[in-house]
Structure formats: structure tokens, C-alpha cells
Design goal:
little secondary structure, 0% helix
Length: 76
Amino acid sequence: NLERPEVNEHSKHDLEFCGNYSSIQNTIYSAGRSLILEFHSEYRQGRLGNYTGFKGQFHFLDRRNYISTGSLVEGT
């Protein structure tokens, strides 16, 4: 719903990952309505201005598979 965005360019980020693929978590989940991933790359000498290094996949999981029948315990 673009009339009521969950996040925008002024929203604070929750996490920041730096490093190569082997040094960060390989699977990232969102329990909320949105998940935003922003990627930045540095120029590499000899690559003719080609910023490379990102590869990813995304999947939408059926939320009905994750419904809890439990009750919230006050104070937890």
C-alpha cells in the first residue's frame, strides 16, 4: 500500500552487515509486513567501473504455516 508505506528513506535501519558472504548470516527473515535490504558496493580497481558481488533470492512463505495457538504471558 503506497499510501501508507511501512518504511521510507527516512526510516532508521535495524541492522547493518559488513563483510563478505561467509561472514554474514545467510538467511534473513522478517516477522513484520516488510523487509528492506539495501546493498552498497565499493569500486574495485581493474573492473572498469563494474560494481559486482551481489547475488540473492527471495521467497514468500505462507504465513498460515506459522500461526501460534499460544497465549501471551504478561510481562514476557
